[in-house]
Amino acid sequence: MRNDKSKKRQLLEVLENLVVEAEENLIEKDPQVIAEIEEARKAYQKGDYQTIQEYIANQSIKN
C-alpha cells in the first residue's frame, strides 16, 4: 500500500507541474499581461521605479 501512495504522490507532483507550466504559457500569451510587462519595461528604462530597499524604507515610515 505504501508503494501505491508513493506512486500517487509522484503522479500528483507531475500533474501539478504540468498545470503550472500550462498556466504560465497562457499568461505569457494574454494581451493584458503583455501590455503590463511592456509598460513596466518602459517605466524601468525611464528610471521610474523603486528599489526593494526604498520600498521597505517607505513601508517602515508608514507604519
Describe this structure in words.
The chain is mainly α. The chain has one domain. It contains three helices and no strands. The protein has helices at 2-29, 31-45, 52-62. The longest helix has 28 residues, at 2-29. The radius of gyration is 21 Å and the shape is elongated. The N and C termini lie far apart (53 Å). The relative contact order is 0.06.
Number of helical segments with 4 or more residues: 3
Strand content: under 5%
The average pLDDT value, as a whole number, equals 91
Low-confidence stretches: none
Features:
63 residues
List the helices and strands and how they pair.
Layout: H1 2-29, H2 31-45, H3 52-62
Would you kindly provide a brief summary of this structure?
With 63 residues, the protein is an all-alpha fold. 86% of the residues lie in helices and 0% in strands.
